[in-house]
Structures are given as C-alpha cells and as structure tokens.
Amino acid sequence: MAVLALPEAAYAAANGSYADWSRSGSSGAWQATGTPAAGFPVAEVASNASTVAVPSGANTFLGPQTPPGQAYGSSQGHTYLNVSTATGFDTSTTTVAFDPATPAKNWAFVIGDLDADTLTISATDANGDPVSPADLGFQGAFNYCAYAPKPAGCTGPGPFTDLPTWSADTSTLVGNTLDTFGAAAWFQPTAAIKTLTLRFSRLLGAPIYQLWLAAKAVPVEVPVTGATDDCPATVELDNTDGSAVLGADGKPVTATTGAGGVATFDAVTDGTYQLHMRNPKCGKTIKDPYFTIVVDTSKGPVKVPAGTFVLDVPELASTGQHTARLLLAGAIILVSGALLVFAGRRRTR
Predict the structure, then answer these.
(1) What's the whole-model pTM score?
(2) pLDDT digits (tens, 9 = 90+) for 291-331
C-alpha cells in the first residue's frame, strides 16, 4: 500500500471550511447535525430553545477579513444556527456533542449577534471531565459588520463597534444590553471537546444568537486514468482501519470523477486516510484500489499522483472473452464435421 506525504512547500495559511447544518424537531425539542469537513467529528445538537433556524449564510456571514475569516476563510454561503431563548424568554440550553471528541487544535466555534443577551459556555473533554474556561480558547471579540464586504444583514451605516465582553471567571459572554448588529466572539479550543453546552439568557430586546463551526481543511484531488463521463469512478474516504469516514448524513464520504477524470474531496481535515476506489459499473476495474494519504492542512491541498488509480478492462474478463470465442469456434467445427459425416453416409447408401 502506497503512502503519500505532502511536499515541504510552505503555505501562507491553511484553508478552512464551515459546517453546513440540517435541522429537525419543534419548539423546545430541536435537533441539528453538521460537520465542517470530512474527517472532523459530526456535531449532534440538541436544544430546548423555542426557535432554532438554519439561515443560508448569503446575507449574514463571517467575511474573509474578520479574525476567524483570516484563519478559516469566509463563511458566506454556508449555513449556521440561529438559536433563541426558551419559551417565555427563559434560559435555553443547547448542547453540541461530538463523537468522537474533537481534535485539540485547528478548529473554532464562533458566536454572533451577542448584544442584548448573555451566553454561558461550558464543555467536557474526551474523558467527560470539565474543560477549563482557559482551554475554551477565547480569541477575542469583533464585529463582523465592520469588515468588507459588509454582509447585507448588517442594516444601516454603523458605526459597527458593539462588542460582547468575555468573563473567564464565569465563562460567560455578556452583551451590552442593546440590540445591535454584528457583535461576535470566537474561540479555538486547546483541549479535545466531547460536549459543548451553551446557556443563553435575555437581557433586553429580541434574544437570538448565531453559531458557526469551522475547521482547518484542504481539498484532496484524485485523478483517475481511464475515467470518462460514460464511465466515472467513485472514491471513498476511509479511516486507516478501513472503515468509512462518515458525513453528517451518516453515509460514507465519497467523491466521483468529473471533468478531466478527477475526483475531488472539497475539504478534509488533518489526519491519515485510506482512499478506496470502487469498481465502476461500466465493466472496467482497477488494479490497486487502495492508497494512503497524509493530510497536513498547514502544507496545503493534497494531489494524488497521476497514474495511481487506473481503470482498465480486467485481464480475467479479457481471457474469458477469448476463451468464449475459442469454445464457440470449436462448437461450429464440431457441428460442421457432424453434418459432413451425415451427408457422406447418405451418399454411400
């Protein structure tokens, strides 16, 4: 089995990716599921909020010049969660559970629209022990409306200077009690996180907060020689033990060849993976369907060498076709011989 390590070329910054979410449930009993990238643990969200919405990310987003945007890229076009208080403006509790626990680096969660409210944040690690406020990795407060391009959801001319305050003593983000636009804060945990619990309380106004998840991730490109539009190839991303990496939908993460016969995984997190090429349905097969890659997001995208995966007509199938032709020819000869013998006998009578 071949192993591919990335080249030593330096990259200015690792790429990143944001979770896209699916949601189900109803008031007081919401569930949501998402993951920012292949290989990152799926986040399972449960909330007793009266409202949990999944906006598209078209009008409200973290631009590329915001602090998290500089580390993970823009979130524009990626969904996020809008979470309210519980019924009657009571404190809502939202739990984000990861299975397995997250890595202890290279990911972030971002809280937005924290202005006329408070949010107390707690977490447990891979062993179920409490995570200290310091290990939640508070990176700072910012206002995403103050950065270009300004999201369309940032109404008015500004100034967009409102910021929440982080209290490490109480592990709480505190708004300034006014409804404004763009007040946000971001965290990069320095411990593996198993559960993240967010308790949201109203101070004044219309209480709601936004939640984004981001992770360092890079594309993985897999060229397949012999793949065509009529005979595409599908590549599965597996763990090193051969089990499939699962997406937020619970299904194996796969990529299918497109233009130029290249299958592309858009975003894969740090780790060692096994690529598994599936035999296409067009009758072709692949000689060696497994290849191991090492993803290091600090070194940029992964490109599997051309010629690693090659689709071809199976040798056994070719041999079988040749054998079938020989058998058919032999049968014709035998039948012809029998007819000649029968004709000869009739002439001698």
Answers:
(1) 0.85
(2) 999 999 999 999 999 999 999 866 544 444 444 444 454 55
- Same structural domain for residues 198 and 328? no
Range of the domain at 262: 218-312
Structural domain tally of the chain?
Answer: 3
The amino acid at 186: W
Distance between CA 160 and CA 57 in Å, rounded? Answer: 19
Same domain, yes or no, for 45 and 178? yes
Instruction: Give the number of other CB atoms < 10 A from CB of residue 288.
Output: 11
Is residue 31 in some structural domain? yes
Q: Are residues 322 and 305 in the same domain?
A: no
| 169, part of any domain | yes
Provide the CB-side half-sphere exposure for 300 (13 A, CA): 8
Q: Are 96 and 30 in contact (CB under 8 A)?
A: no
Rounded to whole angstroms, the Cα distance separating 65 from 56 reads 20
Q: Are residues 177 and 297 in the same domain?
A: no
Nearest Cα neighbor of 245 from 78, 5, 3, 38 is 38
Residue range 196-219, pLDDT digits in tens: 999 999 998 889 999 999 999 999
**Of 116, 112, 94, 81, residue with least CA distance to 206:** 116
Q: Give yes or no for a contact between 39 and 219, defined as CB atoms under 8 angstroms apart.
A: no
